[in-house]
Design brief:
The protein has six helices and nine strands, in the order E-H-E-E-E-H-E-E-H-H-E-E-H-E-H. With about 240 residues, the chain is of the alpha/beta class. A five-stranded mixed β-barrel has the order 5-8-7-6-9. It starts with 14 loop residues before the first strand and ends with a helix. The structure holds hypoxanthine (HPA).
């Protein structure tokens, strides 16, 4: 038990999917998992454990942004012994080759967040995905014929920039950054700190270059592809 999580020791599986939205955690549990049981509902930040293809797996919401994610992830690792953490999120597009509905498998996560910067005075740490989870997700995305990109994303602390449009992203798009979300860099940094494995997979839902947006119907089916992929990766190890 922690101030943010009333699950008991052993309530979480070794592998946990991490959506931001609590209702997405509920949807994943109800749509994909067999025998799903609610293990946490403190602050309505829902967590469930069930099985996928007969193997135990959990899903826990993190809330939005790196401070919120860091609380849940720190406790999943240090209180509940979680070993594999796979973020399933959405992101904005910062590269014209990435189309709405495409998956971005985040090899690295650049950030403006003090949560990462201030942990390494004098250095610029490079938050990276676990290579085994990354390779497994690429192989499975390939086999399922999903459209995907592998590369660097931007985990921002800011959704509403002061500058209009792409201006708030400075030189990042010109340095190969594929998309923007708000959680992966802190996840990768905590995984590195505590010696566990992490990966972030994002569906690109709104392109900041073309202003294309995913329709409501496509959003549901593309999220299904992403969740099935993440569950396959989660139980493979
Ligand atoms: N910015 C930050 N996070 C996001 C976005 C965005 O445009 N779209 C989906 N998650």
């Amino acid at each position: 038990m922690t101030p943010h999580n009333h699950a008991k020791p052993g309530d979480y599986a070794e592998s946990v999917l991490l959506p931001g939205d609590p209702l997405r955690a509920k949807w994943v549990a109800e749509t994909f998992l067999a025998d799903a049981k609610l293990v946490n509902s403190v602050r309505n930040c829902l967590g469930y454990t069930g099985t996928w293809n007969g193997k135990r797996v959990s899903v826990q919401a993190t809330g939005m942004g790196q401070p919120s994610l860091s609380i849940y992830v720190h406790e999943l690792i240090n209180t509940y012994g979680v070993k594999n953490l796979i973020r399933i999120g959405t992101c904005g597009g910062l590269n014209a080759d990435v189309k709405v509905r495409d998956l971005i498998i985040a090899q690295g996560a650049t950030t403006d967040s003090a949560i990462v910067r201030d942990a390494f005075p004098g250095f610029n740490f490079a938050p990276l995905a676990d290579y085994g989870l990354l390779r497994s997700s690429v192989e499975k995305a390939e086999a399922a014929k999903l459209r995907y990109h592998v590369g660097n994303i931007f985990s921002s602390d800011i959704f509403y920039h002061i500058e209009p449009g792409l201006e708030g992203y400075g030189r990042l798009p010109a340095h190969g950054i594929l998309g923007v979300e708000m959680e992966a860099a802190a996840l990768y940094t905590l995984a590195a700190r505590f010696g566990v494995k992490a990966l972030a997979i994002c569906t690109m839902t709104d392109c900041l270059i073309t202003h294309a947006e995913l329709s409501a119907a496509d959003r549901q089916s593309s999220l299904k592809d992403m969740v099935a992929l993440a569950l396959d990766v989660a139980v493979a190890g």
